Amino acid sequence: MNMKSSLTLLLTICTFLLYSSAELDGSLTYIWPLPAKSSSGNDTLSVDPELSLVVGGRGGDSSIIKDGFGRYKKIIFKHGSKSYPVNKRSVFDIGILKIVVLSDNEELQLGADESYFLLVEKRNGQSIIGEAYIEANTVYGALRGLETFSQLCAFDYETKTVQIYKAPWYIVDKPRFAYRGLLLDTSRHYLPINVIKQIIESMSYAKLNVLHWHIIDEQSFPLEVPSYPNLWKGSYTKWERYTVEDAYDIVNFAKMRGINVMAEVDIPGHAESWGAGYPDLWPSPSCREPLDVAKNFTFDVISGILTDLRKNFPLWTLSLGW
Ligand SMILES: *[C@@H]1O[C@H](CO)[C@@H](O)[C@H](O)[C@H]1NC(C)=O
Ligand SMILES: *[C@@H]1O[C@H](CO)[C@@H](O)[C@H](O)[C@H]1NC(C)=O
């Protein structure tokens, strides 16, 4: 390429970049997944960095709501804002998020009601509710509403405030699919607990609701099973294990985000790691891949694993492998 054509190419690229960045419309609002029904307007509303939570309904007092609000507040105001004196607070359009949860039933299962209604509107003479309002039948619906609310909030780099464009927003939403899952395999590759938690956290951004935790497979058996304490001798190393308490911690962490954890134990194939602790589970020393289904002991062990899993994983469904 000669000098002139290189220059032409460079100019073309620069022009393209200039145009494409000029076309970026900062006021575009992306909600993912797309709500079942929504309508928007043309107002821009500013959100108070000291946004406060007001709860109502039988389920409004839940720690799931309080913690969820705290998490989303950090996401919404991740840039930090200029500080405003208390008497200047009226400069913001939205100072309160009200969350009403009608039921106090916090059981999380497939098919739990995750519907919600979200309204964001400038307070004025006509509107009786005003500001930001989420109503849901369950705490899990309210969490989905909080996620949507956080997606409406955009940081404006000019004013260094958080803005909601295209208000008023009226959103009526519920998931189209009861099961929205992500599979994690911690047998082929051990994942530390904090990594699993980051993944669960990120699932909530896409409103996924099932972590399919493929804990155990041929390569390693990282989970503690109290009924058969030698099973986790099949872990890669003794540091690459999950205690019963770790599993409980992960299930609870997920529940606080409206996410079920479905455990998977592969039966009867892919079971080499089981025999590290109990070689009798193998058909023979040279055949270590499937479980020996001719022995009663094999069924005792399976039964022990499932009984122990049942204590830690409240979801009705378990996966026995695929
Ligand atoms: C918003 O502005 C657009 C363009 O000016 C207009 O077509 C539309 O009707 C307005 N929407 C509302 C809800 O006012
Ligand atoms: C295995 O269990 C079955 C059913 O409980 C029983 O009838 C059978 O005798 C057991 N076999 C052995 C070898 O213990």
Automatic annotation (TrEMBL):
The keyword Mitochondrion does not apply. It comes from the Eukaryota. Its EC number is 3.2.1.52. Keywords: Glycoprotein, Glycosidase, Hydrolase, Signal. GO terms for molecular function: beta-N-acetylhexosaminidase activity. SUPFAM superfamilies: (Trans)glycosidases, beta-N-acetylhexosaminidase-like domain. Residues 177-313 form the Glycoside hydrolase family 20 catalytic domain. Residues 31-152 form the Beta-hexosaminidase eukaryotic type N-terminal domain. GO terms for biological process: carbohydrate metabolic process; glycosaminoglycan metabolic process. Residues 1-22 form the signal peptide. InterPro entries: Beta_hexosaminidase_sua/sub, GH, Glyco_hydro_20_cat, Hex-like_dom2, HEX_eukaryotic_N. One of its GO terms (cellular component) is membrane. It catalyses: Hydrolysis of terminal non-reducing N-acetyl-D-hexosamine residues in N-acetyl-beta-D-hexosaminides. Belongs to the glycosyl hydrolase 20 family. This is beta-N-acetylhexosaminidase. It comes from Salix viminalis.
